[in-house]
Amino acid sequence: MATRGNSNQIIVGAAQIFVSKQGPLEYSTTADVYAFSSGSVSGFPSITASGAYADKLEAVSANWRNVGYTSNGLEVQFQPDFGEVQVDQLLDVAKLYKQGMQVSMVTAFAEATLENLLVSIAAATADYDASTATINSAGRLTAGEIEFDITAGELGDVPVERALIAVGPGSGDPAATGSAKVERVYVANRVLSIENVTVSAKRDEPSMYEVTFRLLPASNGNYGKIVDRVVGN
Questions:
Q1: Residues facing residue 186 across a β-bridge
Q2: How many CB atoms lie within 10 A of CB 158?
Q3: Are 38 and 46 in contact (CB under 8 A)?
Q4: E strand residue ranges, 67-193
Q5: In DSSP terms, which residues pair with 164 in a beta bridge?
Q6: How far apart are alpha carbons 232 and 226 in whole angstroms?
Q7: pLDDT by residue for the chain (233 residues), tens digit each?
Q8: Helix (H) or strand (E) holding 230
Q9: 97 to each of 46, 77, 79, 82, 221, how far by Cα in Å?
């Protein structure tokens, strides 16, 4: 009897999402800015070494920040745009050609912090001030204040670009642990938010930031990477 499929290739589970504090990661002397070799990009930990990649990002907290809880997971959307060539002798098109491409990442930040709002609306870091705030180990504001300036900007302003990395379960044995575990790493080189983001205070619903990140290609045309890796490698 022929094999019908492999249930180990079914991926279920949430991802941890990290955003860069240093802007987009498109600047490198290598042909592929995501060579995943040590030192290929400043502040970008090597993916070739062993260990969970989320732990590596937490270890370089000066460059990366975990956005915390999310809702409804993470979606990567590919939207190609094709032009058509019609000829008299056919009722349908004779040829399609690619004339455009859009890639997006969609998620919802369940932790409605002002720092997450800054990322959600692609605002500048200067609009956020937590210099007088005291936050305890539980992540609660206990003294001082956090300010987020809502600004219109100036004519010609462009939204702030950041890099985004998500780490979730990969294709492989879902029961595997330790060095046999497989994880999937989603790397977005340049992301920005250009759609509406709602800040709410409702009696029967939590406040969340539903955000659609638009990905832009780097100078070499690369949006990023999706990598399945064994944690023990």
A1: 166, 226
A2: 8
A3: yes
A4: 70-85, 95-109, 128-129, 134-135, 141-143, 147-148, 162-169, 182-193
A5: 19, 188
A6: 18
A7: 677 888 888 888 899 999 987 665 444 333 334 444 344 455 667 777 788 889 988 887 877 889 999 998 999 999 999 999 999 999 999 999 999 999 999 999 999 999 999 999 988 888 888 888 888 887 788 898 999 898 887 888 877 888 899 999 988 777 777 778 889 999 888 888 888 999 999 899 999 999 999 999 877 788 888 888 888 76
A8: strand 224-230
A9: 37, 20, 14, 5, 18
Structure tokens at 178: 């330790």
Structure tokens at 127: 């609009």
* Angstrom distance (rounded) from CA 203 to CA 200: 10
What is the C-alpha to C-alpha distance for residues 25 and 45, in angstroms, rounded to an integer? 12
